[in-house]
Amino acid sequence: MGKVFKIFGAALERMNAYLQEHDGRYSAIREKVLEQACMLPQPFTAEHLENACQSDGVSTGTIYNCLQLFLDAQIIHATKRQKGHQATEYELITGNSIRMQRICQKCGRTTNFRSPAIDYIIREQKTQSFFMQHYTLLLYGECRKCKMLELKAQKKAKA
Ligand SMILES: [Zn+2]
User: Fold this and answer.
1) How far, in Å, from the CA of 110 to the mean position of ligand 1?
2) What is the per-residue pLDDT across 4-58, written as a single tens digit (0 to 9) for each?
3) Closest to 77 measured CA to CA, from 138, 128, 124
4) Of 38, 100, 150, 155, which sits 20 to 30 A from 7 (CA to CA)?
5) Radius of gyration in angstroms for the set of CA atoms belonging to the chain, rounded to a whole number
6) Dihedrals φ, ψ of 83, to 5°?
7) How far is the CA of 117 from the centre of ligand 1 (A)?
8) 112: CA distance to ligand 1 center in Å?
9) Would you say the pTM of this structure is higher than 0.85?
10) CB–CB of 77/118 below 8 Å?
């Protein structure tokens, strides 16, 4: 139970941070659904989650809304569909193991970003000979501020 509690705590923190960034409102139902998702054997389907939330009277629509929110917030990811399995299966992403950063080569400023699409593709790279635990993705380029300064300098030089 201790482990589940820790996972739920981390997932809840991530959900709240995501909602704060995206003007989402707090809702007790989302928290309830998240708690159930953390307690389910992994991976799980929407139906498993709905059954687990039945006693709380959560509608199917809410279950799907919550799943989309959890995906967007990178709390869960959709696993590769098993042969013969119809339903999409979801799995909790545990630990703060994902790191995606944009690095400005001029000023060194780094900003974190998240991309569920990239994450999905990377997690699909499973092989029998390698078990990924975490990864880092670094994008090198120029930040907006540096780019603007550069454009300004170019204009000045021309004038
Ligand atoms: Zn910069």
Assistant:
1) 9
2) 777 888 889 889 888 988 877 778 999 999 999 999 988 899 999 999 999 888 9
3) 124
4) 100
5) 20
6) -60, 130
7) 26
8) 14
9) no
10) no
Q: Quote the tokens at residue 155.
A: 């204009």
Tell me the domains of the chain and their CATH numbers: 1-95 (1.10.10.10), 97-159 (3.30.1490.190)
The pLDDT tens digits for 73-120 are: 888 888 766 666 678 888 888 654 567 889 899 998 888 787 878 877
CB-based contacts of 104: which residues, under 8 Å, 6+ apart?
Answer: 110, 141, 142, 143, 145, 146
Residue 123 CB-density burial (10 A; 0-12 exposed, 13-18 middle, 19+ buried): middle
Q: For tokens 């054997």, name the residue.
A: 41
Per-chain residues with Cβ under 5 A from ion ligand 1 = 104, 106-107, 109, 143, 146
Look at residue 149 in the predicted model and tell me its pLDDT.
94
Neighbouring C-beta atoms of residue 46, cutoff 10 Å? 16
In this prediction, residue 84 carries a pLDDT of 66
CA distance 35 to 75: 12
Give the separation between CA 91 and CA 152, rounded to whole angstroms: 48
